[in-house]
Amino acid sequence: MAESKSSTQSTSVDLNAYDSKLNEAYAGFHGGDVSAIVSVCEQLMSLDSRRPEAFAFLGLVAYTMDDAGRAVQMYETAHDLDPDCRDYTEILATLYARIGKLTDGVYFAKLSTTLENDPRFEKIVPTALKDFASALLHSSKSVYHLYALRAYNERNFREAADMSRRHLQIERNDKDAYLLLARSCVKIGIYEQAVSALHTAIHLCPTEALNYVYLGKALIGLAQKDEALACFKRARACAPHDPEVHVLIMDGLVSLSDDSWPRFRKIAGAWNRKHTTPRHKALGHKFDPAEGRRIRVGYMASSFNLASPDAYFINAVLEAHDRARFELIGYQTFAVDDPFTHKMQNACDVWVKLKDIDTYTASLIVKNDQCDILVDCTGYQEEGRADVMAGRNAPVQVSWVMGGEGAAVPGMDFLISDNALSEADEKMCLKEQRPLILEHGSLALAPFNVVEEASAGPAKQNGFVTFGAIADLTMISMDCIALWCKILQEVSSSRIAFGYVDEVASEVKERIVELFSHMGMADRIVFHEPDEVSETGPGLTEYRQEFFSLVDVLLDGHPISKPLAVAQSLWMGVPVVCLSNGRRSARMGASVLASAKQNSWIARSEDEYVQIIKFLTTDFNTLEEIRLSLRENVQKTPLFDPASLARRMENAFLSVLNK
Amino acid sequence: MRNTVKLEILDSADFEALSIDERRVRNHAAFDILGEVGEGLRTHVPQSELIYHDDGQPDVLFRGQHLYDGKGAHTFAEKQLHDYWAQPVKVQTGFIDGKSLDQHTRDFATQLIEELDEADIDIETDYISTTDTSFFLFVMGIGLAPHLDELIEKTQCRTLAIFDVNNEFLYHSLSVYDWASLIVRFHSEKRRILIAIDDDPDHIQARVQSAIRQFNPSGLDGTCIFTHYHHAAYKKALDELLRDGLKVGMMGLGFMWDELRMVAHSYKNLEAGGARVLKKREERLDIPAFIVANGPSLDESIDFIKKHQGDAVILACGSALDPLLVNGIKPDVLLMLEQGQGLLNDQRESAKLADISDIIFVGASNLYPGVMNFHKERILFFRPGLSSCPLFSQKSEQRPLGADPLVANAGTMFALSAGFREIYMFGVDVGAPSQEYHHSKHSQYSTRGIKYNFQFEETGRGNFGGKYLSTQVLLWSKKAIEVLIANNAAGRSVYNCSNGLLIEGAIPRHQSTLDIKKVENKKAIIQELINAFPYYAVEDFKTAWEKADILHAIPELIDKLIAALDGDLDDYGFMTKMMNHLEPGINTSTEAMVIRGTVFNILMVVYSALRRVKDHERMDDLQDIIRKVFTHTLRDFSTECDEWFASLVEDTMEWET
Q1: B165: which chain A residues are within 8 Å (Cβ-Cβ)?
Q2: How far apart (Å, rounded) are the C-alpha atoms in residues B358 and B346?
Q3: Which residues on chain B are in Cβ contact (under 8 Å) with A365?
Q4: A335 interfaces chain B, CB cutoff of 8 Å
Q5: CA torsion B316→B318→B320→B322, rounded to 10°?
Q6: How far is A499 from chain B (nearest CA, A)?
Q7: In this complex, do A361 and B513 lie within 8 Å of one another by their Cβ atoms?
Q8: Phi, psi of A196 (to 5 degrees)
Q9: Chain-chain contact of B65 with A449 (C-beta, under 8 angstroms)
């Protein structure tokens, strides 16, 4: 391996130490301990970064870990450092041929014929890694992007991000892969990487609207909301008529500040006028009780799976519907099923998958199913089918969404609402839409499958109050942070513990700390994260149970509330305080609290919010009593009575059909 | 530790006396025999905890919840079994008198019933059997296995199939249940045990179907299905299976009458050479394939196909040929599958509509001799489920899976294996909108008044929504296309543009949304395609026929089957012995495949009679009669086969030309 050349370049290095480490690396490779090899390679590099061996070893590690792109990178570096080593050029020839870069492969294969092998290194190289002929026969483009797409569809976002990164090591100018990497990173909350990937994607394709949409979403995750708005504007300019872009922009707008909020209805109205089938042209068939058949209700959702919080609410109602009177059709708009999907499939008479089906055909399918009522549970969310809903393929279309906006969604005639939401819904409804207001709330859940008792809370033991908050900057505005800082001032020695999510990326933590620093409260926040990073979905996991046991009161987000988290909190005995004003998404927590008969924790103003918090946290004994009795109190309420909600929804359906 | 433990059957006291570690080591060793599951158990990291209640009963605690509702495994199972036997979930076929089966079986059943009448032995002809025993036992949910022993004891099952959605409870059961004794006992008694860990309802369903098909297609009657705990995947799988999925496990096993003809037709089609044989092509064909079948929705697609006929390879499936020709569309490929003589006449009629000689013919080897002679280029393949396949096929790529039961399956198979990357289906309706409108209006059913005998008694989900009518055979075809796509469509896009039944895996796509690109060199692409398939030479034919030596192989097999009837028939062990000779799960023995479909039917009659004898005191008499009639029937089969093949080789058979 060109010993003499390397030696002359590293005169200032302790050659004995380097050789000793090199021997260690060879021994480690035979032992197969990857982490030990990586560690030795780091040491080799620190001893002499101009020697190629460490890169060659790391290349082998990358190859054994099926990361061909990284392996190429390592061997290119090794080859730069030692251009005379035949092993590196042979490996590069094989790797390039295998990933479909035949010109590069042939170049290195030719080059190899003039060089010599390093006998020691040659011994540890797998035969396949030097089999240029076989690589030529099996040459194909990188499949990592396909793997990434599959992982993304399976909602395995970490895997999707990893596969996209591998692909980009090979195909450095693949704009689609950058976009997919960014989308995956947004899903798992690694926003800075998403931003970085999207900057490259935009550089490669400045006219692709989705790049700007996801850049906007990533920026929202970092609480850079003004910049996000600019991105959404740019996206709209790139694709003014694309329904997918429209839906994603609208979803993003929900997270923006109050100043931007009036735009929402305006944009939605303009889109509706252009792209939605007018009501008078809607499907004509009408339910006739004399036909003696059941009322056919279709539920369309992108959330019929374990990864979605909405699924808990939807499934509870699907399972509780009166099947003697109602025939249920589930329209699944995403690709891959999970056990929760199967559960929901069992709750429906018919199950239809609409993923990858074009708008015309999907509309035809829905139309031919002759639903009497089509319920859209997706609204403005990724993988929703606003394009199909806009076609009015059922005589009555109803929106029932658990987050975001339900009104102003294309093609909707009605919106399931309740007393906590109706004010916002009435304001937001477009000309032909109106809310269907259900008494006792519009959301319900099956009781959680957790027998762990609610805890008394940490306040008494700590001597101060710990508020809980969800570590998700997409949910909270600067005004909300200011309000929470005010609370920290008012409630002496109190803390806010950010947690609940599967992982808080370091940049999000830094940003949260920075935002609280603006108010001088950075030292009053802590983060509580799970021990291991995982994608466990939104259920009441052990980690979340522990999180709720470590906080005294949960502060719901504003302007976006997480209704499932609010319900879980109540179940675990943790009072939740919600600021219920402005848009619908800010009031979802209040809707849950009202269904759970906990109206006294709903604040209409910031002052009231502070008062409620102070009332709850003044006396630790009272707080403890509230916590210990909360589960028993709420489980008898409409919030945990899905059968009752199903009846109310059925009655609402009947009322609109009768009209 | 692996494979070094000596496994013996222990009584329960001896097992109880072992330490937990000893039990686990023993059970692990036993599970290693079962392969995949054993490996999964060794590496499994439990998320729950095995606990014991105060009364010593085991239970599993998972996130604060007990698996057995806090009652303990045995108390829970005791009540569950009590409730189950009060209302068991069983498959009941009723007594099978052979009337709906093939002629050979009908003859057997008639003779059996006559003999039973003469001997005054009564058979319960009602639906329900007179015993709880059954050949198959399917158990959904393992838990700590407190339910298994009683179920096995009562059913005396010969095949036990247990399903669970994950390894969690099975892992804990290794500490409390003596799996080793169960597995060793089953192996020593030549009974089958299958344990599958899977949470996909489709996979569970397929595994049940495969177990029936593989271990005993005749033993479905009385099958017990026990659900230990509920899971959405079990429910979905069982709903499908009990609706009609179990029948699929029994379908498509050819009768002797048919199989004899399959061999003869293949013999005649291959003996002169000149035909090519199928070969799987991985190379990409840069032109879309249109699979065109004769469903009624073809009428809606004719104009579209005509417009794009220069930019796609058109694969006409069987009787779709006429509607295409009548409308001025010359398909590039014609696929045929059925053995019937009627196809010869169909070809004659089609040839009157246009010159069909330059259409490439792709067909099964068992087609009626002469059918393929209307075409210059002929490509044959072998249907793996037919006896002609092991006899004449040389390589696995010549015997594609999923090319049947109907010609649309063959079309899909060909499109997927020939290298097409974009595949569009038209008229592949696998159903009909009404009993009257069952095929294209331009097809022979309308133009030549050919009667369509099937009743559309089934319904299915429409490709473009709503419901659609279908038949059992069409549903079977649909399922087979779905499996084909699931197993072979990687890297390919399959769109179903037919206004018929939904086919899972083929994306519904209305033709109005398609954008078919112009293709400049279609002719060259088709020539490239033809050249890829090699010829089946006369020498290949001779070698294959001599190697099979079928004239001797069939009598030898029949002797073995007769020998299997010795001994007690009541424990169904004779069925296992016969299955070992007939190899229902595999298709490698020509002699077995020629007779086995009919033998399975006869076994169904026998099995249903054994399970319904009114007076169990007369069981021995019943068995004697079964032995006598069955032996006589099998000897007749031997003679019939001998005469048939002799006539084929001596070329004294008569063929229409």
Answers
A1: 339
A2: 17
A3: 462, 464-465, 508
A4: no
A5: 110
A6: 21
A7: yes
A8: -60, -45
A9: yes
Q: Which of A364, A372, A543 should we substitute to test contact with B (largest number of B Cβ atoms within 10 Å)?
A: A364
Q: Find the closest chain B residue to A348 by CA distance.
A: B236
Q: Which helix (H) or strand (E) holds B210?
A: helix B201-215
Query: How far is residue B200's CA from residue B173's CA, in Å, rounded to a whole number?
Result: 22
Contacts of B465 in chain A (CB under 8 A): 352, 364-369
Please, which residues 532-551 of chain A have a Cβ atom closer than 8 Å to chain B? 542
Q: State whether residue A357 sits within 8 Å of chain B by CB.
A: yes
Q: Return d(Cα A449, Cα A433) in angstroms, integer.
A: 37
Question: What CA–CA distance (Å, rounded) separates A287 from A310?
Answer: 29
Mutate to test the interface with A, among B227, B513, B514, B515 (most CBs of A within 10 A): B513
Report the largest interatomic distance among the alpha carbons of chain A, rounded to a whole angstrom. Answer: 97
Q: State mean pLDDT over B260-266.
A: 94
Give Cβ neighbours of residue A346 (< 8 Å, ≥ 6 apart): B232, B235, B236
Amino acid at A643: A
**Range picked from A496-505, B30-39, B497-506 for highest mean pLDDT:** B497-506
Best CA proximity match to A553, nearest among A514, A598, A510: A598
Q: Burial, A452: exposed, middle or buried (Cβ in 10 Å; 0-12, 13-18, 19+)?
A: middle
Condensed to tens digits (0 to 9), the pLDDT of residues B296-331 reads 999 999 999 999 999 999 999 999 999 999 999 999
For residue range B414-434, what is the model confidence (pLDDT) as tens digits? 999 999 999 999 999 999 999
Query: What is the SS3 assignment for A71?
Result: helix
Tokens, residue B309: 């006929």
Contact criterion met (CB below 8 Å) for B224 and B242: no
Say which DSSP state B368 is in.
P
Helix axes A175-188, A157-170, angle to 10 degrees: 150
Q: How many CB atoms lie within 10 A of CB A54?
A: 28
Instruction: Report CB contact under 8 Å: A451, B65.
Output: yes
Find the range with the poorest average confidence among A270-284, A594-608, B10-24: A270-284
Distance in angstroms (rounded) separating the CA atoms of residues A103 and B184: 59
Of A339, A352, A360, the CB nearest to B232: A339
DSSP state letter for B90: B
Distance of CA B493 to the CA centre of its chain: 26
Chain B partners of A360 at a C-beta cutoff of 8 Å?
510, 512-513
Nearest to A400 by CA among A386, A414, A416, A411: A416
As a whole number of angstroms, the distance between CA A585 and CA A587 comes to 5
Tokens describing residue A414:
């009605």
Q: Which amino acid is at A319?
A: E
Determine the Cα–Cα distance for residues B412 and B290; give it in Å rounded to an integer: 10
- A450 and B CB contact within 8 Å: yes
How many angstroms away from the CA of A361 is the closest CA of chain B?
A: 6
The residues facing B501 across adjacent strands are B462
Query: Coil, strand or helix: which one is B655?
Result: coil
Which residues, other chains included, contact A68 with Cβ-Cβ below 8 Å and sequence gap of 6+?
A62, A95, A98, A99, A142, A166, A169, A170
User: In the block, which residue shows the tokens 């009974």?
Assistant: B191
Strands (E), A515-623: 525-527, 553-555, 576-579, 602-603
Which backbone phi and psi does B61 adopt, to 5 degrees? -110, 120
Residue A246, pLDDT above cutoff 80: yes
Q: Per the CB < 8 Å rule, is A361 touching B508?
A: yes
B100 CB-near residues (< 8 Å, 6+ apart) = none
ipTM given for this complex: 0.80
Q: Is B318 left (phi over 0), alpha (psi -120 to 50) or beta?
A: left
Give the pLDDT score at A346: 87
Q: Which residues does A222 contact at the CB level (< 8 Å), separation at least 6? A: A191, A192, A195, A473, A507, A508, A511
Name residues whose C-beta falls within 8 Å of residue B319's C-beta, 6 or more positions apart in sequence.
Answer: B294, B346, B407, B439, B443, B444, B445
